[in-house]
Design a protein that fits this description.
Blueprint: H1 6-19, H2 24-50, H3 56-67, H4 73-80, H5 84-96, E1 116-124, H6 129-141, E2 145-150, E3 157-163, H7 166-178, E4 183-190
Antiparallel strand pairs: 1-3, 1-4, 2-3
Helix pairs in contact: 1-2, 4-5
Length: 204
């Protein structure tokens, strides 16, 4: 059922009164116009209600959840001066609207024996949409590629790859780059020290 603002309801009522005095052909055309107006209003209303502006409470909740997403909602409520129920509703809305993209655990690479961290810039043979889309799909599907960015300013892509040792990394580079006809060249930079690695966004 369409929910329209009062001024639209008045317009629709006026249109219906006018239709009573019109020939049948004009009535059909006018009725279609009325339905189009109603559908457009409903679309605008949905867009306005689903767009979300983060207020100070949302931002405070996000700062806490970024540090530890297992923080009990009661503790969050005490920290931001809201009720537990209000925090629960806000967290559910943040998840529903895609602001909280997902909840996951960050695993230490060394615990899994992933000793090699490589940053790789990749240049393609051409930048045609079909080529770029195909390579994006390949990089996205490969489990050794932890992060992938399509960039400007020189290389086509910048990747972050984790491997257990150099032989494993060599096999990855052969599979993704050396044997890939879409790749013109690539350069690897091996990390000596993981100075900082995080996903926390700066929330003012």
């Amino acid at each position: 059922m369409l929910c329209l603002p009062p001024y639209r309801r008045c317009r629709l009522a006026s249109c219906r009164r006018s239709l009573d005095r019109c020939p049948s052909g004009i009535i059909i055309i006018a009725a279609r116009i009325v339905l189009l107006i109603a559908a457009a209003d409903a679309t605008i209303t949905r867009a306005m209600t689903t767009s979300r502006i983060l207020d100070s409470f949302d931002r405070a909740i996000l700062r806490i959840l970024q540090r530890d997403n297992r923080t009990p909602q009661r503790s969050i409520a005490e920290a931001v001066n809201l009720s537990t129920a209000a925090v629960q509703r806000r967290v559910a809305a943040l998840e529903r609207d895609g602001i909280i993209a997902r909840n996951s655990a960050i695993v230490a690479p060394h615990a899994l024996g992933l000793a090699i961290t490589a940053i790789v810039d990749v240049r393609l043979t051409d930048e045609k949409a079909a080529t770029v889309d195909r390579v994006k799909a390949q990089f996205r599907a490969d489990p050794d590629v932890q992060q992938c960015y399509y960039v400007t300013g020189g290389p086509s892509f910048v990747l972050l790859i984790l491997s257990s040792d150099m032989s494993s990394y060599e096999a990855t580079t052969r599979r993704l780059f050396a044997e890939n006809e879409a790749v013109a060249s690539y350069h690897s930079y091996l990390a000596l020290d993981r100075v900082k690695a995080g996903m926390d966004l700066p929330i003012a």
